[in-house]
Amino acid sequence: MAGNTRGKLKEHLEGIHRNSEWVVEHCEQCIILIAGDNPKVTEAFVSIAQAQKQLDELVLGIYSTI
To answer: What pLDDT score does 2 carry?
Structure first.
């Protein structure tokens, strides 16, 4: 892989990682706003946050192998 391509990929992976933290933060804020009023919506936000954390783990794994 060309050095320039490798660097660009790492930049994009870093961006995904930074945005991942914000997605989880926004999900947590939504859960607080819902405050148990709608268990299905709360469960949906918990699932989104968990999926985002798994995605972030994959991104970090790819980053470490490049």
So the answer is: 54
* CA 66/CA 32 separation, integer angstroms: 38
Q: Which residues of 8-30 are buried (b: 16+ CB within 10 A; e: fewer)?
A: eeeeebeebeeebeebbeebeeb
pTM to 2 decimals?
0.80
> 10-23 pLDDT, tens per residue?
999 999 999 999 99
Q: Which long-range contacts (CB under 8 A, 24 or more apart) does 20-29 make?
A: 20/52, 20/53, 20/55, 20/56, 20/59, 21/56, 23/48, 23/49, 23/52, 24/49, 24/52, 24/53, 27/52
Percent of residues, the chain, with pLDDT higher than 70: 95
Structure tokens that stand for 45 in this block: 């936000």
